[in-house]
Specification:
By secondary structure, this protein is an alpha/beta fold. It has a single domain, classed as Ribonuclease H-like superfamily/Ribonuclease H (Nucleotidyltransferase, domain 5, 2-Layer Sandwich). Helices cover 40% and strands 28% of the residues. Strands 3-2-1-4-5 form a 5-stranded mixed sheet. Helix 1 runs parallel beside helix 4.
Length: 160
């Protein structure tokens, strides 16, 4: 088997903010693994990013060549257009959101060779559509997790 992995991701939030979830599919040769989780209070952008993070955390090897397909312009452009490098360099100056998740993604990404590709959401891509199903089912689930970073930020800003 090669050291090349294909990952599809999607995130969803009901109300944005509201209950949310992510779905991701990891593919390595003939092996396919689906992951998803739901959170009681979060945002769509956080779930888009959590889908990527969950996929990277599931990998057991390092130095892999990874192509990540996402329908999130926010995630794809942040990495591919260098926004994230600038945010890290300026310590997320100007109130850039999701600092906790972007820092976690950045740490995980250093172990691999990652390329993002944008795909049109809710279109004819079966893997993206499956990730959407996983994400929305997770958001609608009964046993929702706590998005610690988001809820701490709300408490700090006296919004929760």
């Amino acid at each position: 088997m090669s050291n090349s992995i294909i990952i599809y991701t999607d995130g969803a939030a009901r109300g944005n903010p509201g209950p949310g979830g992510y779905g991701t599919i990891l593919m390595w040769g003939d092996v396919k693994k689906e992951l998803s989780n739901g959170y009681r209070h979060t945002t769509n952008n956080r779930m888009e990013l959590m889908a990527v993070i969950a996929a990277l955390q599931a990998l057991k090897k390092e130095n892999l060549h990874i192509t990540i397909y996402s329908d999130s312009s926010y995630v794809v452009k942040a990495v591919e257009e260098g926004w994230l490098k600038n945010w890290i360099r300026t310590d997320f100056k100007g109130g850039k959101k999701n600092k906790d998740l972007w820092r976690l993604y950045h740490t995980l990404s250093q172990k691999h060779h990652i390329k993002f590709k944008w795909v049109k959401g809710h279109a004819d891509n079966a893997f993206n559509n499956r990730c959407d199903e996983l994400a929305t089912a997770a958001a609608d689930g009964k046993h929702l997790l706590i998005d610690e970073g988001y809820e701490q930020e709300l408490k700090a800003n006296k919004l929760l």
